[in-house]
Amino acid sequence: MSASPRHFLDISALSKAELRAILDEARRRKDARKGWPKGQHDSDAPLDGHVLAMIFQKNSTRTRVSFEVGMAQLGGGVISLNANDTQLGRGETIEDTARVLSRMVDAVMIRANVHQDVVDFAAAADVPVINGLTDLSHPCQIIADLMTIEEWSGDVAGKTVAWLGDGNNVCTSFIHAAEKLNFRLAIATPGQYAARTQEVAAARAAGADIFVTTDASKAIANAHVVVTDTWVSMGDVDKEAREAAFPPYAITEEAMAKAASNAIFLHCLPAHRGEEVSDAVIDGPRSAVWDEAENRIHAQKAVLLWCLNKI
Ligand code: CP
Ligand code: NVA
After folding, report:
1. What pTM does this model have?
2. Which of 19, 83, 263, 274 has a 20 to 30 Å separation from 309 between CA atoms?
């Protein structure tokens, strides 16, 4: 591996061309294997002989399975580690773990409690490191979300994406993407759970069109894409305060009626039905959440190929 691996830590660190190349590769590979058994490798098996290690400090269904299946489709292998089962759980440093894994595998994905730990891991690693969700951001998710938006609605440029609910890690990655792909992002949160002001300011300074409000109706008005997430993320401790603050931001049919008539609904999942989204919306004709979940596989594959200099 070269001295400067391509880490995938945040969408803000990608160029517009790199983000577009990742999205195009994901789409191309998805189209090329329609109807195939899910474990069959792509015809070119571009990561034959490669191994990915994954470290999880938090629970996961989609991220873990999509990376495992994605690596299998690319011809490579995966080792999945619960952080507490490793020596990290007994105090071995992040940096030493990064140095050792760099000698044993070709890339590492980490889902971490603290974003800085992923940054520190990457700084010590000499293989690519992928952010599989932190308290700050969830860039892999947003690759799948952008892919889904473009499948359902065409080019995301010029569209309005409305984010309602918590200004959390998934919201941060949408903020990072807004400037890269020139869509308008309208964010409505309660004041105490606002999107990170530093991320919003940096994105605006780079040219992003981001509207921030506490009024859910204003954000969702005429939106082409409506997105929400759980009100209580992994690691959040103020569950009761959150459940009191968020009901005005719930995505119901009444809320969707304010969006554009052909608006789609996205949710990274897991969903809390009856809280941030109603059954009627998530199970309704404008819900793209199952495509969004599947697209995690295709997105992960493109991210891996970018990290390993294959695109
Ligand atoms: N959306 C997402 O990252 O799901 P998991 O927590 O199941 O990986
Ligand atoms: N915001 C959620 C996303 C889960 C995929 C969390 O961090 O728990």
Report:
1. 0.97
2. 83
Centre of ligand 1 from the C-alpha of residue 146, in Å: 16
CA distances 46 to 74, 76, 77, 296, Å, are: 6, 8, 12, 18
pLDDT in tens, the chain (311 residues): 456 899 999 999 999 999 999 999 999 999 999 999 999 999 999 999 999 999 999 999 999 999 999 999 999 999 999 999 999 999 999 999 999 999 999 999 999 999 999 999 999 999 999 999 999 999 999 999 999 999 999 999 999 999 999 999 999 999 999 999 999 999 999 999 999 999 999 999 999 999 999 999 999 999 999 999 999 999 999 999 999 999 999 999 999 999 999 999 999 999 999 999 999 999 999 999 999 999 999 999 999 999 999 99
The number of residues in the chain equals 311
Q: Choose, from 7, 138, 267, 298, the residue flagged as catalytic.
A: 138
Other Cβ atoms less than 10 A from the Cβ of 142: the count is 25
Sheet containing 129-131: which strands, arranged edge to edge?
77-82, 51-56, 107-111, 129-131
DSSP annotation of 270: -
**Atom 7 in ligand 1: residue holding the nearest Cα:** 61
Q: Identify the active-site residue in 6, 7, 296, 298.
A: 296
Ligand 1: does its nearest atom lie under 6 Å from the Cβ of 29?
A: no
Whether ligand 2 lies within 6 angstroms of the CB of 230 is answered as yes
Cα–Cα–Cα angle for 36, 37, 41, rounded to 5 degrees: 80
Q: Kindly report the protein residue whose alpha carbon is nearest to atom 7 of ligand 2.
A: 233
Q: What are phi and psi of 12, to 5 degrees?
A: -60, -25
Instruction: State if residue 230 touches ligand 1 by the CB under 6 angstroms criterion.
Output: no
